[in-house]
Amino acid sequence: MNIMKKNLLETHDYYRERVNSQLELYLSSISSTKSSSNQLKDIMKYSALAGGKRFRPILTYTVANLFDVEIEKVDSCACAIELIHIYSLIHDDLPVMDDDDIRHNQPTSHKVFGEAQAILAGDGLQALAFQIICNDSLIDSAIKIKLLSLLSTSSYAMAEGQSIDLSIVSQKVDLKVLDNMHKKKTGALLNCAIKFGALLNNTSGKDLSILDSFSNNIGLAYQVQDDVLDVTTSDEVLGKRQNSDSIKNKPSYPAIIGVEESIKTFEALYQEAMNELSLLSVDAEPLRLITEKLMRRSY
Fold first, then answer.
1. How does 159-194 read in b/e, with b if 16+ C-beta sit within 10 Å?
2. By C-alpha distance, which of 19, 135, 138, 150 is closest to 75?
3. pLDDT, tens digit, for every residue of 126-153?
4. Model pTM?
5. Measured in whole angstroms, how far is the alpha carbon of residue 81 from the centre of its chain?
6. CATH number, domain with residue 24
7. Which of 245, 225, 221 is nearest to 299 (CA)?
8. Range of the domain at 247
9. 220, 212, 214: which is closest to 176 by C-alpha?
10. Exposed/middle/buried for residue 141 (C-beta within 10 Å: 0-12, 13-18, 19+)
11. How many domains does one find in the chain?
């Protein structure tokens, strides 16, 4: 595939554009009866095509490229992981959850279409994620089973993490509780995105174990970093409300150990993750460069 011979920015732009076009294709192909309305499809598109970093599918494409997987075989997995992420955001933004009214600098789904329709749009996106992998004729059936098993396990862990998040509002918790929540709420889907790229080529157990450890570190690092950005970055850059955690009395790394220590924590986790990449059986330089880019992100 040799896409990584381009510079990093061009490569990530290519992956982002590719997943955006594939998402639009999958969403447009949803079947409906002549008598049915396209309203649900339109609501699903509203959130799914609103933009965003798309770094989960970028990770899937990058890891798949390391293991020489043809890019056409990666599209359904890259889209599935993003659809699960988007469905979770729609539900997280609801008044009964995080109660957010801005996402990607536009009104959240429930503010535009109402809470009931937003819930249904999230449900539809989740179902579509599994459907597009099931229907991918380029992926061997045995590999599909592994992919779907990982996606379902990761999706449940993500929901469990959100449940923990809601249960500790206004409570004093230690870092162990916070770490466990972050590893589930954010880390599980990152882990899935990374492993997807390797599973598509039936990668060895040793490489999968290394990628598992790598993804656990960047998953926790990413969320600690999010906690920091929540208090240090403007609404316009974040694309959502600043200080949302403190306003809702949600425990966070900065609230427990301060901003400076939180920065040291996520930087050390990213560094540990990068150190592990040297153990892979393939040249993981593209993945290391992504990790460096994540460590320097501003939103």
1. eebbebbeebeeeeeeeeebebbbbbbbbbbbbbbb
2. 19
3. 999 999 999 999 999 999 999 999 999 9
4. 0.90
5. 7
6. 1.10.600.10
7. 225
8. 3-295
9. 220
10. exposed
11. 1
